[in-house]
Known about the structure:
Radius of gyration of chain C: 22 Å
Radius of gyration of chain B: 19 Å
Largest sheet of chain B: none
Number of domains of chain B: 1
Structural class of chain C: alpha/beta
Strand content of chain B: under 5%
Protein name (chain C): Branched-chain amino acid transport system substrate-binding protein
Number of domains of chain C: 2
Order of helices and strands of chain B: HHHHHHHHHHHHHH
Organism (chain C): Phyllobacterium myrsinacearum
Order of helices and strands of chain C: HEHEEHEHHEEHEHEHEHEHEHHHEEEEH
Number of helices of chain B: 14
Helix content of chain B: over 70%
Signal peptide (chain C): 1-20
CATH architecture of the largest domain in chain C: 3-Layer(aba) Sandwich
Number of helices of chain C: 14
Strand content of chain C: 15-25%
InterPro entries (chain C): BCAA_transport (IPR051010), Leu-bd (IPR028081), Leu_Ile_Val-bd (IPR000709), Peripla_BP_I (IPR028082)
Largest sheet of chain C: 9 strands, mixed
Structural class of chain B: mainly alpha
Distance between the termini of chain C: 70 Å
CATH class of the largest domain in chain C: Alpha Beta
Keywords (chain C): Amino-acid transport, Signal, Transport
Shape of chain B: globular
Oligomer: heterotrimer
Largest interface: A-B, 47 and 49 residues
Distance between the termini of chain B: 41 Å
Amino acid sequence: MQVFFSIGVDALAYGMVLFIISIGLSVTMGLMRVVNLAHGAFAMIGGYIASYAARDLGLGYGFAIILAVIGTIIIAIPLERFLYRRIYGAPELTQVLMTIGITFCVIGLANYVFGPTLKTIPLPADLQGPVNLGFRTIAAHKLFAIGCGVAVALGLWFLIERTSFGVKLRASVDNTAMAASLGVRTRIVYAASFALAVGLAAFGGVIGAELLPVEPYYALRYMVTFLVVVSVGGAGSIPGALIACLLLGAIDTTGRYLVPEYGEFFFYLAVIAIVWVFPRGLLGRAK
Amino acid sequence: MSATDISTSAAPAVHTGRPWQRDLIGIAVILLAAIGGYFLFPDNLALLTRIIAIMLLVLSLDLVTGYCGVATLGHAALFGAGAYAAGIAAVTFGITEPLSMIGIGAIAGAVAGLVSGVVILRGHGLAQLVLSIAVIHLFHEAANKASTYTGGSDGLSGIAPDPLFGLFEFDLWGRTAYAFGIVLLVLVFVLLRILVRSPFGMLCRGIRQDPIRVSAMGASVKASLIKMYVISGAVAGIGGALNAVSTQVVGLDSLSFTNSAEALVMLVLGGAGSLYGAFVGTIVFMWFEHVVSAANPFHWLTIVGALLITVVLFAPKGLYGTAANLAKRFARSRP
Amino acid sequence: MKKLILAAAAAILFSGAAYADVIKIGVVGPFSGPFAIQGKNFKAGIDAYIATHGDKIGNDTIEVLYRDVPQADPAQSKALAQELVVKEHVQYLAGFYFTPDAMAVTPLLQQANVPLVVMNAATSAIVTKSPYVVRTSFTTWQTSAPMAKIARERGVEKAITVVSDYGPGVDAENAFKSTFEKEGGKVVESIRMPLSTNDFSPVMQRVRNSGAQAVFAFLPSGPTTLGFVKAYNENGLKEAGVQFLAPGDLTQESDLPALGDAALGILTTFHYAIAHDSPENRAFVEAARKAIGNPAELSFPSVGAYDGMHVIYKMIEATGGKQDAKKAVDAVKGLAWESPRGPVSIDPETRHITQNIYLREVAKGSDGTYYNKEIKTFEKQPDPGLAPAK
């Protein structure tokens, strides 16, 4: 029983970290229909900014997070204006080519500017060290990550389902021409949701840095993981992404605990099994 | 997001003359390029042979992605299966005759194509992409685990192919390997030209454009796609085996996600849906990478990234597709 | 008359040019991609050697050509080596971070008449693949086996091994296990985890449940070590008194600032620490830090590259700049010198480097930086991994 709880806690924490980082990708891929392979690159940029702010400038952790999110969005705005706007509605393979190109550039520049070493984001004292749960200890920052994950999930759900921006976004995505003729300024809606996705990526990059450390190759190293969780959940579905992250987090953690030698087999066989049963992802919209 | 809108549309055939004539011209161009490569870069034959092997992989990917509209990031599984089969045949079972090694590679690639086809074709759109990622990781992990046969992460070394026909040795200068590669490439190209113009090839193009209509016509979509996957596997397997014969070593990277993704990038760069696009994309990407990374081994990735962005902005149908379009427009503007 | 003088001058000039050759050395390594920092260290070591010893041997000038293989890719490595030999006419091949890349090149050497100086790749068997291979780095067996002795000395009865599931990881596991059990200890469990593991918490729970007194770990240096060491602390293993043992790859100096306090007290065995106290090392570190730019990036591959250059210089001296791989390799068999890492020699039989292995503890200096503090020396260690490899 203790083993069960122990795995459960780890799985929850890992799943939530995955969720925070990948949910932005779910927005770009599901709502904006852009296969954005550069998502990891934005998470990495966020991590670098936070690391620079907290470690080199000595700012507080909370301030570093805000700076990372805003800074990444500012960097992303010209990219949206000059590059992404050209590939909205383009064939997916063209989008793949463009976003991989952007990823390569970001990796090369990060390597040049920050060097190839690992960068850490110092945690505040409250988040450091283990917390005793009674039956085992867990890192405090993992509890923090779980909390952030829940907050992000609720906030996004509210934004998309309950606000007028959400209505406009869904309308623009379903039928851009019709939405525009009804007076929705679709370009601005697209730009805003792109900024939202990038901001979430940066936020996730900072919160998840304890598990996925920031270094230049980050952008490609974890790309597959992000792509897998988003697609298994069904792109564009927030509950779907949440369930997928928790499920895959649990499968991964259980596999690593029980049969670490075959952890990789365990994980990907499970992915195949899930997609076999749900060919459009867990909660993907049939088109 | 269904399978249909995934690929770029095929470069429209330029109807200048009869198709067989154009194929002869195509073969002539390949041979000319091959001879030109031999004399212009006599010291780079190892690299040129590697480009040919990867070209076979990209051609094979073009069959399923360009012609059938299946998006996959796991195509190196077929290439790697061919490479490992040829390598294991040589090292463990002592089959070192190059033509047999190529044959074994083709068979292994076809089997890998069947397996991954059955799995990947279950999904659509993104799910399909994810299945292909899962497949390549499973192949990779299996090769890592079977280290008795594959050498695991240390790589399978000690492949020593016999001289070709007992006469031409695979040596340091790589002339034999290069000529062997060119002959294989031309053979495969001819067979694939026949294939893509056959009724079966047309059916596959039809599936890419509208699978529902094709099935309404009474053809089995899935069976055709799996058949194409097996053929594609054989082509990739030949490429893998050629790589094993010419470099005499096989590493886990041949079965990697990176290799698959790079192949896809090369295909889209050249223009999916046309065999020539596959050629152009592979040559441009690999040659560019080679030159830039030799000039600046530390920061070449940025420049490659910039190349990809530029191509999307200025040649959205891929290099060959856009060039073919331009040629057509030019031909039309003249009376 | 004037013409004659000109002709004579030209003759002198040209004959001079014929004697003063450029000798090219081709270095293959990961200069971009996830292992870029290790390639950078190759270059720093080589640059440091050239800066301190000059780029001329007699009348010959040394030129180093770099080729990039970002991740283990034997086919690419072989194609590049072939190009270096055939097109660039390099007389020496060097570098090689990954074992498969080095293995791929060994069949070329005889025909190319080129020696290969391995500056990192750490699988024992490489030197057996060709008589023209010399290695100036270390092997995983060489650095892991002494740790088993340390563990026994410190009274560890039961240990658990946790390694990444790939060649070097398996090597480390075998080296530790066989030595530890020979010394009378017991390895209660051996865990192999996939290279792509991000979350090590479940593994640490297993370590905890195994009841072992010490965990011996091997992961490739880089981002995963950070998560691993943090998981060790956060899951309360440190408090529980489970000793953390590893070869020095885990605490390479370029990762230490990121590991920070979490790494304090970790015991590692390795062939080189930047903090090694000797005049040779101080001179080397100064030159290498200048070469690499950012001093925090300097770590162990640089010393393998530095000593590799030393061996190549000796080879060039012995052959007088002529291309003769056999003579070159024979000349360095048994060569002994004072390296920045301490006294070393090339074993005439295996052509692998015999060197001291140090036990180190991660400590915090007075200036707040972290370093590997050497606390014990195992002198003149050969490679124990070669016997099982054969």
